[in-house]
Amino acid sequence: MSKTTWELDFYSRPVLDDEGKKLWEILICESPTDTKRSPDDLFRYSEYCSSKSVNSIQLREAIEKAISEAETPPKKIRFFRRQMNNMIVKACEDANLVPVPSRRTYALQSWIEERMNKVYPKQEGYDERAASSISVQYPASNAVRLPDAVRGDRDDKWMFVSLEAVAFDEMNEWDIAFEESFSLSLANISPDTKIPGLIIFSPRAIPLAAWMSGLEMGFLHLETDIRPQLQLETGLSDSWTLLNLTNTATVDEGKKFEAAKQQANGVHFLAVQSSPDSESFAGFWLMKG
Q1: Taking the domains of the chain in order of start, what are their residue ranges?
Q2: What average pLDDT does the segment 157-183 reach?
Q3: Phi/psi zone of residue 125: left (φ > 0), alpha (ψ -120 to 50 degrees), beta?
Q4: Other CB atoms within 10 Å distance of the CB of residue 51
Q5: Which residues have CB under 8 Å from 248's CB, separation 6+?
Q6: Which among 98, 162, 172, 193 could disulfide-bond with 189, CB atoms 3.0 to 4.6 Å apart, if both were Cys?
Q7: pLDDT (0 to 100) of residue 1
Q8: C-alpha angle 109/195/187, rounded to 5°?
Q9: How many CB atoms lie within 10 A of CB 41?
């Protein structure tokens, strides 16, 4: 069974047709799972369509065209636009693919940004006002605690750490039970950039990592509005309380982690180990956000 994952967007663009209506575009690209892989090597497919043909049939046909052109067909397709959920889900299911709502669409977001800056402005009918109004807003959600089966106890410990970006060149050689990474070329960072991360040490390392592997891992986020805590954002809008930061020292660590994320263009990681002495990881996820 194919392990390839694709990312998909189907939305209007800041380009007007002859009738003054926005053109719509289907973008499909491969999710990079190797930290060293160049985005230029990823499979990409694009197709414009008029606003009159925005439907699941048009999208399914585009997906099938992309599959016919790809060297390796996907097992699932990630998408991030909540308002297009029903249409994308139907098209994917009709094409016998698994649709996955996800904020882990790093390659797609990078491609859209590139097209917004370099492609659409050069096209006839480009509408600068429409371009400046385009944004994606994720709905706010209240974080919930981890399931009892994986929630930590007094034996659990955690630690904020950092690694240079170049260290991830060897990630495919690390002993990891559950993992997912992406091409660091998408983040436009130098090899010596410090990548911040959180390591959780737990006797329940394997169950915790196995549970996390079933989520669409988005990013870690420091929340301080209600109570200081480190949250794990997954799917399109799910949020989990990973750590409660209970004193000034831990809150300061959390703030330093967030600052380091900004310096690394949002790149960070979450790791799970059974103990600080372990030479393997139960789980390791490279994330961006």
Answers
A1: 5-132, 144-288
A2: 94
A3: left
A4: 12
A5: none
A6: 193
A7: 46
A8: 25
A9: 11
63-97 burial code (b ≥16 CB/10 A, e <16)? beebbeebeebbebbbbbbeebeebbbbbbeebeb
Q: What angle do CA 216, 100, 204 make, to 5 degrees?
A: 30
Cβ within 8 Å of residue 200, ≥6 positions away: 152, 156, 157, 158, 208, 242, 270, 271, 272, 273
Least confident of 34-48, 99-113, 165-179: 34-48
Q: What is the pLDDT of residues 206-260, one digit of tens each?
A: 999 999 999 999 999 999 887 899 999 999 989 999 988 989 999 999 999 999 9
What is the CATH code of the structural domain delimited by 5-132?
3.30.420.10
Which residue from 139, 160, 188 is spatially nearest to 258, judged by alpha carbons? Answer: 160
Cα gap 23→50, rounded to integer Å: 5
Helix (H) or strand (E) holding 283: strand 281-288
Tokens encoding 69: 């052109």
Token pair for residue 242? 């990973």
Contacts of 251 (CB under 8 A, 6+ apart): 224, 228, 245
